[in-house]
Every structure is written in structure tokens, then in C-alpha cells.
Amino acid sequence: MEANRRKFIKQSLTTVAGLSALTDVYPNIPASKRPKIATDRATVPPVAAGVKFSVIGLNHGHINGQTDAAIRGGGELVSFYAKEPDLADAFAKKYPQAKLARSENEILEDKAIQLVVSASIPIDRAPLGIRVMQHGKDYMVDKPGIITLKQLEDVRKVQAETKRIYSIMYSERLENRATIKAGELVKAGAIGKVIQTIGLGPHRMNIKSRPGWFFEHDQYGGILCDIGSHQFDQFLFFTGSTEATIAASQVGNVHYPQYPKFEDFGDVMLRGNGGAGYIRVDWFTPDGLNTWGDGRLTILGTDGYMELRKYTDIGGREGGNHLFVVDQKETRYIDCKDEPLVYGTQLMNDIVNRTETAMSQQHCFLATELALKAQAQAQKVPFKK
Q1: What b/e string do you get for 340-374 counting C-beta neighbours within 10 Å, with b at 16 or more?
Q2: Which CATH number do you get for residue 231?
Q3: Residues 87-125: pLDDT tens digits?
Q4: 58 and 116 share a domain?
Q5: Do 127 and 261 fall into the same domain?
Q6: How far apart are CA 283 and CA 294, in angstroms?
């Protein structure tokens, strides 16, 4: 059964990769003149052997998406550990194939486990990742994967020593179908050279459902470090920047004085060696929206631009994964709901083959470094409450 499943994944990926000039993407351009959509999906083989993985830390709901990505990529979930009985019970019901470990060390010392996945409290993620790498295992962690510059220094040191993978799952790119399609089109030159990205990451508060650590700056790292990390990742990816500086950044608590250590607004201007970027993140999604946030990305190129409405289209289209492309020929809309998600497969292959197809380690750490530097130098917004 497992061999058949892998064969199906391989056939599906190959078929999709072969449709590199779909009519609905370039409806008014002759086939001979459509740009070839270069994509890594054509070279993503199924995993040669199942990667055994475990989960430690269930403090954020993102752990379900991370676990699903690993399983979808061919990983075998073996065990999990959490200090909190309620979180452990919920995870056990969702993933009954996994054994509840008696301790973190039981997982770390299990030589059969190749990968540890975590969405623990943000302050605990980097120290856990260091222990994971020191035990000879790879690590896939929820964002923010590191919340201080000192943690980043320590993680970089141990990663360089152990050569293990420290992968931060920036899900707004890696697990969003519209962003994946936009990446393929940008790579194909559909809008020329990228000049700037504008990333917007609004979120709904849902105060009653939030644990205490959510409001403590030293536990979650600040708004730019936390939800802003997605936008730094996308800026680097779409501009191709390998170096960048923070031009200006600001943060503030403008609406929740009862949580003085919490930030509900932040924005950043940055310059890279491949383009410019602007980022805005906030916790002001109103209850009238049909999802948790109207996340958007605008990509400006020399020959056109794209707008991604990732999770909803307030213009009326159902669902998410909406991509709008404007170039020198036309304006078009692409429904990306059927785009395959390949991060999990790529990561599993990287674990087996010791490659960097899912994300380079340099990119992973640079996105985090920019978020941390923006957070550290951010000025407080002067708005009156």
C-alpha cells in the first residue's frame, strides 16, 4: 500500500509539472509564446524510505498543519510528548497512530527517530531545536522558530557543528497554494524582475482562546518576530535577496492596555540586494470577516504585478488561494485551490538525501534574523489610545 501511495504522489507531481503552460493561466497568449513555468515540482521524487518522526510541544494549533505536512510528504508519525494533558489528549485523538512518550528524552534518545516536529511555546522552540540537533535529529518548527538574537546565534552554532536541518515552517508561503503558484510564475518571468513585495498579515485576536504566554513579550518575541516572520520569508523568496537591511520598523499596543506586554500592530520597510519590501502585521481582523485574516501579498515587477488574496476574497469569490496577475498583455485571475503542496515531500527528501530543496538553511536563518533585527530596533508608535 505504501509503495502504491508513493507511486501515486510521483505520478501526480509529474502530471502537474507537465502542465506548465495552462490555458487558464495564459488564455490570450499563443502556446508557442507562453513562458515555460519552471518548477521544482518536476524534480520532487517520492521519499525513498519512510522518515520516522515524533512531535514535542503542542502549544500552538499550527502543530496539526506541520504534522499533516510531514505525513503528506511520506513521514511516519511514531510518538509525541506534551506536558499538558488536555493538549496531549486532543492530539492523540487526531493522530491515534502515535504513541504518547513518557518524556522528551524518550524521543530524543530514540535512535530510530529522524525528525522532531514542534509548536511549543515560542521561547522554548530554539532550546529544544538545539537539543534535537545535538541528538543527531533534524527539526521542523513552527514560526517563530527563534525569538532572540542570542538564540539565533546559539542555533546557528549548533547547526553548523551538527549539520542537522533546522527548518522553520513559514506556512504562509510553504503551505499556501496561491503563493506556490505565484512563485512558479515569478520564476518563469511572468512579471519581469521583482522590484518590491508588500506583505500584509492581519489576524483575529480571539482573546478568550489565547493562553497566558500569548500576551507576554518575552514568551512570544513581539509581533514582528512572530507573525511578521512569514512576510520576511516571502520578501527574501520573491525578491531573491541574499542580503537585506531594515530601513525602519515600528510596533505598538494601540488597543489592548489590559495586556501591556502585548503588541497588536507593527510595520517594516526593508531593502535587499534583490528588491525592496514593506510589511504590515496586526491583530485587528474584525469578527465580520469569514476567516481569521485577510492575508495578502502584492509582488511588483518590471513588467507587471501580482496580488494574492490568500485566505479570502472580499470581492466575492469563495474560499481562498486567489491569485491576480497583471502584465503587459492582460489582467487575469487564477484559482489556485488545486495546486499541490510539496514542502513536506521536499523536507523528507532533504532528510534522506542531506539536500536543501525545501529551503536553504541560509534563507531560513536570514528571514529570522531580519525579523529579530526589525523587532529589536522598532520604535513605539505614538498613537493616542
Answers
A1: bbbbbbbbbbbbeeeeebbbebebbbbbbbbbbbb
A2: 3.30.360.10
A3: 999 999 999 999 999 999 999 999 999 999 999 999 999
A4: yes
A5: no
A6: 11
The x, y and z cell numbers of residue 375, run together, are 523587532
For residues 78 and 154, membership in a common domain is answered with yes
Residue 243 and residue 223 in contact, taking contact as beta carbons nearer than 8 Å? no
The alpha carbon of 326 is separated from its chain's Cα centroid by a whole number of angstroms, namely 25
Among residues of the chain, what percentage have pLDDT more than 70?
A: 87
- Per the structure, the complete domain to which residue 290 belongs is given by 173-342+372-380
Strand partners, 51: 75
The H-or-E segment that residue 258 falls in is none
Residues 150 and 217 in one domain: no
Instruction: Specify the pTM.
Output: 0.87
Residue 271, domain member (yes or no): yes
- For residue 88, the surrounding DSSP H or E stretch is helix 85-94
Query: In the sheet where 166-169 sits, what is the strand order?
Result: 99-100, 75-81, 51-56, 115-118, 138-142, 166-169
Please say whether the dihedral angle defined by the alpha carbons of residues 378, 169, 132 and 88, taken in this order, is positive or negative.
Answer: positive
Q: Of all residues in the chain, what percent carry a pLDDT higher than 90?
A: 85
Q: Which of 112, 142, 169 is the last residue of a domain?
A: 169
**Strands (DSSP E) found in 215-295:** 244-252, 265-272, 276-282
Q: Are residues 180 and 159 in the same domain?
A: no
- Condensed to tens digits (0 to 9), the pLDDT of residues 242-298 reads 999 999 999 999 999 999 999 999 999 999 999 999 999 999 999 999 999 999 999
Amino acid at position 367, single letter: A
363 within domain boundaries: no
Total number of domains in the chain: 2
With b for 16 or more beta-carbon neighbours within 10 A and e for fewer, the 130-139 pattern comes to: bbbbebebbb
Half-sphere exposure (Cβ direction) of 237: Cα atoms closer than 13 Å:
26
Q: Give the confidence band of 383 by pLDDT, cuts at 50, 70, 90.
A: confident
Domain identity same for 324 and 179: yes
Asked whether the predicted pLDDT for residue 9 surpasses 70, the reply is no
